[in-house]
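Incident log entry.

Two folding requests arrived from the same account within the same minute. Monitoring flagged them as a possible duplicate submission, but the sequences differ. Recording both here for audit purposes.

Request one:
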Amino acid sequence: MDTSTLLPRPLDTRTCEQARLSRDARFDGLFFTAVTSTRIYCRPVCPAPSPKAANVRYYASAAAAEADGFRPCLRCRPELAPGNDVWQRGEHAVARALTLIEHGELEHGSVDTLAARLDLGARQLRRLFVEHVGVPPIRVHTTRRLLFAKQLLTETAMPVTEVAMAAGFGSLRRFNAAFAQANRIAPRELRRLPRAPAGAPLVLKLGYRPPYDFAALLAFLRGRALPGVEAVDEASYSRVFGDPAAPSWLRVSVGARDEHALRLEVHGVPPGELLAVVTRLRRMFDLDAAPQTIAAAFRRDAVLGPLVRKHPGQRLPGGWDGFEIAVRAILGQQVSVAAARTLAARVVERFGTPVAGAPPGLAKLFPDAAQLVEADLGALGITTARAATIRGVAQALLDGRIDFRPEQPLDAFAERWVALPGIGAWTAHYMAMRGLSHPDAFPAADLILRRAAAPGGDALSTRAMEQRAEAWRPWRAYAVMHLWRSVAVAPKTKPSR
C-alpha cells in the first residue's frame, strides 16, 4: 500500500478500503468508516468483523459521519482517534480555523468571529469547511465536545453534570439532548465505573498514531526540566499548574501495551478547563502527527533518509506555556542546554509562585509576564542584555504587541518577534517550534544544525542551510529534531540580535 501521501483530498476509496481491511493503525484518525446497515461509524482499526464493502462509506472527519446520521462505535471509540495533522497544522485557512476551534474559539464566539480572525467571510469559511472537512465549523465544534464527553463518561466516574460542563455545555438538559441525538443512548447509559473516591486523580487515554517514540520525547524534555515546576523520569512527565491557592497537577506516562495511547492523570482541574488541558497536552506531546506523511518528505534525502529509518517515531516536543518557552529560549542563546536550564531554574527559585498540595518535587509555578516585567534578573547571573530582552518580551506580551495565538502564520509570528530588541530569527523560530508546535519552524542559524546537515564537511552557512531545507517543507521542524538527535549535542547559536 502506498503510504507516501497517506490520504489525499478527496478521500481515495481504494486506499481507505485497504487500510480498513488491514486495520492499519497508521491511518487511524485520517478517515472514518461508516456502515449503512448498522448506522455506526468506526475507526479504521476497529476490531469488529469487517462489514461488506457495499455497506461502507468513508468520511474525512467524525463530524461528517455524525452529520449523516451515524453514531460512534462503542467498541473502537472514535473519540480516541488522533487528529488529522494534515488539517490541524499549517497555513491553510481550514488548518488555522481547526486550530482555533481546538483552542475553544467557538465556546463563546461565533463562526463570524472565527472567520474574522482569519480575514475571511463567514460564508467563505463555511464553504471551505464543507469542501475539505465535510461539514461546517459548528459541526466540528459540536462533535469535538460530544466525543470528549463520551470519553469522560466511558473512562471516568465524573458526575454527568460535570461531564456536561467539561464538554462546554452550560445546560444539562441541552447536553443530554445533544448526546442522545448523536449516540442514540442517554449519557448515563455509558456509565461503567463507580464514583471515584474524593481526591482521586482523573485518568484518561490520549491516543496517537504509531510509530511514536515516547522515550525520545521524554529524553528531550528531561534534559530541560525545571525543578519544582516539572519532573521527568524514564517513563513519565509531570507538571504543576493553575491557581496557586488550589493548584492542579498532571502526569503523562506510557499507556497499555495493546493500545496506541498515553496515560494521563490529572488532579484538581476544574471541569470547565479539562478539555483545554487535554488539547494543550495533545499539542505538547505531538499526538496528532502523521509520521508516515512526515517520513515520506524525508525518505529520499541523503541526510534525513537514514535518520528517519533509524528513528521512525520522532515527534516534535512542544512546551506547556508560550511565555515560559520564550524566557528559556532567550536564556539559551549561545549557551548549552544545561547552562540555560540552570539559569531558568534560578528564575523559578527567585520569582516562581509557591504552591502547596502537589506531589513531591512539584512546588512552584513558572512566573508569568507580569511577574518578570520589572524583575531584577542580573543577580541571578543573567547578562544585562538578556535580562533586558526578557523584560522587553514580558512588556510586549502585556501590551499585546506579540502573542502565541495558535492560528497565526509562521512568517507573521517571526516578523513580530524579531522586531523586539534581542530577538533574532533563531530565537523566533525556536519559540515557534516549542511554543506554537509549528511543524515548519526552522532555526537555520543554529550551528549544530548546520554541521549536522553537512556530514564530513564544514558547517553550512545560514543561507545555504535555508536553501537546503526548502526540500523539507512543510516539516522542517521535524528535520531539526532528527538532525539534533543525530549528533546528540545540545544546540547552540550565536546571540540573537
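Request two (distinct sequence, not a duplicate):
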Amino acid sequence: MSPEILTVAMFATLILAITLGHPLAYTLAAVATLFGLIDNGFDVPALFDMFANNTWGLMNNYVLVAIPLFILMAQLLDRSKVADKLFETLFVVLGGLKGGLGLAVVVVCTVFAATTGIIGASVVAMGLLATPALMKKGYQKEMSAGIICAAGTLGILIPPSIMMVVYGGLTGLKETSVGNLFAASILPGLLLAGLYFIYIFIRCTLNPKLGPPISKEEASKWSPVQKVVLTLKCLIPPMALILSVMGTILAGVATPTEAAALGALGALILAIFNGKFNWTVLKESCHATMSTTAMVMMLFIGGKFFSTVFMSMGGGDVVADVLVGSGMNRWAVLLIMMGIVFLMGMFIDWAAILLVTVPIFMPIAMELDFNPLWFSILLCVNLQTSFLTPPFGYALFYFKGVAPEGYTMGHIYRGIMPFVLLQIVGLVILAMFPSIITWLPSIFFGA
C-alpha cells in the first residue's frame, strides 16, 4: 500500500479505537503494531527489535527522571495544605472587591501551578476549598466553575510542568531543552492568568451579582498591616519552593532533574513545618506518584511506538507534503496545525497529542523557518485548552467530581466557554508578539 493510504488508514483506526473507549496507551501501541506489520511485510522480529530499541532509548533518557520527582512534589504539596492557607488569606485580602474571591482563586492557582504542575491537584484542591466559599457568597455557578477549572489548568503550562518535561524529552533539540521551555513558558502562563484576572474583575464590576464582594463588616476585621503580614506569611513558603526549583534551573546551578529532586525535598519540608507529615501522607503520596508515573510512561511508550511506525512508513512526509507542498502561506499552515491540535484536544489526552503531533509538526515548523521554541510554546498553550474543551476536558470532570450538589455539567460547560475564548486570545497575542516567549530564555540561556 502507498504511504498516503497507510497514513489515512492509521489515523482512522486510531480515532475509531479511541472512540470505542480502549485505553489510550495500549491503543497507540496496538495500532502501531498492526500498521508496522503491514508496512514491513509481517516481519515480526524486525518490528520487535525496533520497538525494543525505542523503549530502551526512552527509558535511558535522564530528563524523564524529573517526571516522578515533580509528581511526588505535587502530591506532598497537595497534602501539606499550602493552598488552603493561601486561599484563606486572600479571602480576607481580596474578598472586599467585586469578584474578589474569584480573583483570589486565580492568584492561588497561579502560585500552586508554579509549585505542582499537576492539573488534577489544582482543580480538585480548589474545587473542595473554594467552591463552598464562592457559593456561600452568592457567586453564579457558571462563573465559579469557569474560574476554578480555567485557573486550575495553569499548572500544565507554568513551570515546573510535566508537559514541558515530556516535550523536551521528545524533541531532543537544544532550542527546546526543558530549561528553555521552562523559561519560555513563564510569561505566557502569567499572561493567561492576567487575562483571567482582568475578565473576572470587569465582568463582576459590570454585574456584581455574578461575584459579589464580602460584607464591609467581614472585610474590616483585619487591619491593612495584618493583611500584609498574613499574605507574606502564607506566600513565603511556596515562593521559597518556587525559587529553589526554578531559580536553580534558570541560574544554571541545577538541571531540571536535579531541581525536581530539590523541589520534592522542599515539599517534604513544607509538609513537616505545616504539621501535615506522617506515614500515611508519605505512603499515599508515593503510591499516587507511582501510579501517575506508570500511566505517563505507558503513554510515552505507546506514543513512541506510534510515531516511530508512522514516520518509518512515510506518514510524516505525507503530512509535510500536504501542508508545505500545497503552496499555502506559512501562517495558514501554522493555523491548520494549531487547529488540528485544538480539535484533537477535545477527544485525546495531552500526552498522546504531544507524542503523535510533535514528531510530525516540529520538522514542518522548522522547514517553514519558525522559531522552534516559539512554536513549541504555542503548541503547549493550545494544549492547555484540551483540559477545558468538551466533551472530554479533564478539568471539567475533576471539578464535577468534587463540586457541591446542584452543579450540573451544563453549568460547567457554560462557565468555561469564556475562558476557552480567553485562551485563544492569549494564543493569538503570543503568535503576534514572539518576544513574550523568547525574552526570558534569551536572558538566561541565550536561546
